[in-house]
Here is the input.
Amino acid sequence: MGAKIVLDTNVVVSALGWKGSPHRILLKCIDKTYLLFISPALVSELIRVLSYKNIFETAVLVEPAFSLDIIQSDPSDNRILECAAAAACDYIVTGDKHLLDIRTFKGISIITPEDFIKLSKRN
Here is the structure.
């Protein structure tokens, strides 16, 4: 067993949503390379952060009636395409290279957050 660690809530959230260093660290905790510690207060904070009502009150939930297999190298990215297509979105805003490489999908522009901000400032 390796180092004993505590992960800040923002690191855990990043680990769950993106595939960078926080994700790799969390995977090492899962496979017991590191021994992860968490307290009840940290669990409460994590639950609070992961259940921010504003995203659930603001967002429209769609349940795609189809599944896609377009991005072979990272199949989970297909869920983004499914959601956007089911909702007939105008944009997918992402930093994910697999998605950005596609550029457009079924008339949906796939752009970075920075490009979306620039675009929205023009409108």
In short: Residues 32 and 76 are 24 Å apart (CA to CA). The radius of gyration is 18 Å.
